[in-house]
Each structure stands twice: as structure tokens, then as C-alpha cells.
Amino acid sequence: MGDRSGSGKVSDDRYFLDGHLKNPVPNSCQVHAEGSAPLQSAATTRLYKRRWLIVCLFSSYSLCNAFQWIQYGIINNIFMRFYSVDSFTIDWMSMIYMLTYIPLIFPVTWLLDKKGLRVIALVATALNCAGTWIKVASARPDLFAVSFLGQVTCSAAQVFILGMPSRIASVWFGSEEVSTACSIGVFGNQLGIAIGFLVPPILVPNVDDIDELAGHIRVMFYITAGVATFLFILVIIVFQERPDIPPTQAQASARLIPAESYSYMSSILCLLRNRPFILLIISYGLNVGCFYAVSTLLNQMIIKHYPGEEVNAGRIGLTIVIAGMVGSLICGIWLDRTKTYKQTTLAVYVMSLVGMLVYAFTLSLGHLWVVFITAGALGFFMTGYLPLGFEFAVELTYPESEGTSSGLLNCSAQVFGIIFTICQGKIIDRFGTLAGNLFLCVFLLIGTILTGFIRSDLRRQRANQLAKTAAAPGHHEGQDYGATAPINASHF
Questions:
Q1: Which of 22, 81, 191, 218 could disulfide-pair with 31, CB 3.0 to 4.6 Å?
Q2: Where are the alpha helices (DSSP H) in 261-309?
Q3: Neighbours of 488 (CB within 10 A)
């Protein structure tokens, strides 16, 4: 997805399908672009080394934001005592990330299409920085409302972050490395969650003295604020909207499309008529929603069976996410090499279900080392699924905006995350952890079945192949790759 400001257009493949340029028209999603430039057979493309700096910088500020999502939940019992609130209130410090996303995702996606990557990056890091400094001022037992305000501000920043990996990959990277680049973008978010599991129990030990506890909390907040401020400054100096020369033939042609040819509402409507994508929205939401619930309630589940093991609860969370990071990178590399999106997504989904079942039945055995192993296996597949969902969505929804498709996926995940976290928490309180985890297994089974029904329609791969064919020497001159030929969505 490109930018839009001179801002650009949409992503590298957004307006091409079967060799034609695309612009949605009402009702049918039959598309054509009038007066648009045809595919350029001799466009100059280039891959810049700077692309790795851009994606790593994005991963860094995504990390900083994701760390704060779980920093309260993983030491739930400590913050309950410090602020004199109940467990469910502390759960909302995580769930607010999910709730804020739902109403904000559509205006943020619209802003992304209108203003481009740099503006979104600046807003994300500014909000994240502001939220961390608000929390610095909240390290007193009577200032829970201030701490909540800081968390709400950081949760707003997250809306400007979660859908960006596939966009950055399309704008900066070649067609043979977009899945790997997307995985690196997701990697930062996962690493932030991992650090969020590991560091808070170490920085904020469960001490009896409230003043001493306030000092530990303040140190954690100051460290986070310092990192967020540094990253904000770095984005101002370093983050670039797009490369001067596009990375692919399709991106080069997309830059020639006038901004007026794109309708955000038409794009949304076309996506909602795409049946394979609707199935993916639901199945993705079920899987990631389960991950959100497990992460938010992990401290409570571990403490129930292993009292006083707050630090090990954090380490188990770390194990889940580190294993998932490895899974994400492996899946990204695998997709770039094989392009087997449907098969890989289904296989990982099935293994997520198996991993959840094994974790559910071994959690109460009384052996922490067993929990570490089963949680790691669960994390490898469940969080390894995240970039698969993003990239599969881009394939199914091409040539629509990656930001829009990613936003809808994440919106589904937030909705299911809130529902699952509340329901599983109540089930655990009343019936125990086994019942709570089996509750999630039921929905993972439903998600697996839905994934099996998704038709594998790799539109972006077809378009990239056509772009290469058109650019090849000796390509047939008389073949019509003009911008005015209609394309009917029923063919896809």
C-alpha cells in the first residue's frame, strides 16, 4: 500500500488485477479505472537498504506500545493491592486496548489512505509517548484514574500501529520478501508482549510496604517513558514516507493513479462482499481473541495452581511469545518461498487447537516445567498465526488497501478478545481453569472448520506474475493491459 500525499496511492498491487488497473464502482465490485495509466513495461524499480531501517524502527515503537498492554495484567495481584481495586478492574487495563481499537480503526484507516505512513507513525509515537508520561504521574495508590487515562492514551496509539506491517511491507519491499517483512513488523509487537510478561514481575516485586512498591512502579513507568520518548524523536528524524523509486512494477504503476480514483467506502463495501475474506475475519478473530484472553488471564491461572509464582507466570508468558516469534518468522519465510497461504494457515490453526488442548489438561499437574513446554508449543502456533492472517488477507482482498483489510482483521480480534477475556475470567472464577481453557478450545475448533472453507484465491500473486510478464522482453505488444477494460469480481 502506498501513500497518498503526493501522498501517493495505495499499495504496490492495489490497482492491478489480471493486468488491468482497478477502481471500484457501486454495487457489483466490477471495476475499471478511467484515464489511468497502463502497466508500464519499462518502469525502474529499486530496493533500498533503508527499508530494513524503516521496518525495524516500526517494530521498535510497536514493541514499546505492546509492552504496556500486558504490564498491568501480568502482575494483576500486585496492582490490585496497590490501587485497592478488584481483579476485573485490572483486567480492563488490558481490555481497554481491545475496546479502543473498535471505534477508532475506521477513521485511522481512512487517515492512513489520505495522509500516508509517516503521519500515522508520528501520531502513533506521539500518543504512545504522552501515555507513558501520564502513567509516570500515576504511581500513587489514590491515582488509579490517572493510570487508566495513560493506558487509554497508549491504547489509542495502538490503533495507529497494529495494521501497519503489511502496509510497510508493500510500500518498501519486493514481491519476494513481503511476507518476511510483514513477519518482522509483527515480530516487534510480539517481542513487546514478551518483555511485558518478563520485566514487570522483576521491576515490581510483591513487597508489603506500599511506599516501596510505589517506588518500584515509578521506576517501571520512567523506563517506559524514556524509551517511548527516544523512539518518538527517532521517528521524527528517520521515518520516511516511501522510497523515491518504487520496489515493484505494480507499485510504480500505482503511483500514477490519481488520488480521486479511490473511494474508501467502496473499498469497505467490496471487502464485506468478499466471502473468503469474511470467513478469514471470523476465524482470525477467534484465534487471536483466544490469545488475548490467555495472555490477560495468565497471571490468575498460574497463581491459582502455583501460588507466589508471579515471576514464573511472567516467564511462561515470555515463553509463549518468544516461541510465537520464532513461529512467525518461520511462517513468513515459508510463505515467501512456497506461497501456500491456505495450507499453511490451516495447518497452523489445527496445531493451535491441539496446543490449547494440551495446555488446558497439563496446567494443573503441579509441574511448572511441563507448563513451560506446553505453553511454548501453544505460543509457537497461536502467535505464529498472526502474520499468516495478515498476508492471507492481503492475497484474498487484493487490490484493496492492506490497511483496511488488516484493520478489519484486528477489529474482529479485539471484539472476540473482550468477549473471551470476560467470559473465560468468569468461568475460571466459578468452575476452574480447565473449564475456562476448554471454553476457548471450542472456539478454536470452530475457527479451524471455518478456515477449511476459505477458498484460496491468491489475487496479489497473480497480479505480480502478470506485472513480471508485461515487463519481460518480447512481451506481446498487442495484448490489452489498458486501464479501461472492466473486471468482474465474480471471476475471482
A1: 22
A2: 264-272, 275-305
A3: 10
CA distances from 236 to 8, 17, 58, 117, 270 (A): 20, 36, 12, 12, 35
CA 343 to centroid of chain Cα atoms: 21
**CB neighbour list of residue 282: distance below 8 Å, 6 or more residues apart:** 412, 447, 450
SS3 177: coil
Residues 6+ apart with CB under 8 A from 105: 159, 163, 407, 408, 410, 411
Alpha helices in 74-205 (DSSP H): 76-83, 87-115, 117-136, 144-159, 164-172, 178-203
Nearest to 331 by CA among 387, 395, 374: 387
Residues ≥6 apart with Cβ < 8 Å to 181: 51, 55, 165, 168, 169, 172, 173, 332
How far apart CA 126 and CA 122 sit, in angstroms, is 6
Distance (Å, whole) CA 397 – CA 73: 35
**Bridge partners, 487 (sequence order):** 31
Q: Are 109 and 407 in contact (CB under 8 A)?
A: yes
CA 61 to CA 41: how far, in whole Å? 38
- Yes or no: say if 467 and 22 are a contact pair by the CB < 8 Å rule: no
Give the type of residue at 347. A
Q: Is 339 left (phi over 0), alpha (psi -120 to 50) or beta?
A: left
Q: Residue 20's beta-bridge partner residues?
A: 17
- For residues 451 and 54, what is the distance between their CA atoms, to the nearest angstrom? 33
Enter the DSSP assignment of 285. Answer: H
**The pLDDT value given to residue 471:** 58
Q: Rounded to a whole number, what is the largest CA-CA distance in the chain? A: 81
Integer Cα distance of 1 and 10 in angstroms:
4
Helix or strand or coil: residue 35?
coil
d(CA 4, CA 1): 10
Instruction: Check whether 464 has a pLDDT greater than 90.
Output: no
Contact partners, residue 413, CB within 8 Å, separation at least 6: 98, 284, 285, 288, 289, 292
3 state DSSP class of 336? helix
- Which DSSP category does 21 fall into? E
Q: How far apart are CA 340 and CA 231, in angstroms?
A: 36
Number of neighbouring beta carbons within 10 Å of residue 406: 27
Cell of 105: 480503526
Cα Rg, the chain, nearest whole Å:
23
40, three cell numbers: 508500464
Q: What is the pTM of this model?
A: 0.71
Model confidence pLDDT, tens digit, residues 144-194: 999 999 999 999 999 999 878 878 887 878 777 777 787 788 788 888 988
Identity at 263, one-letter amino acid code: S
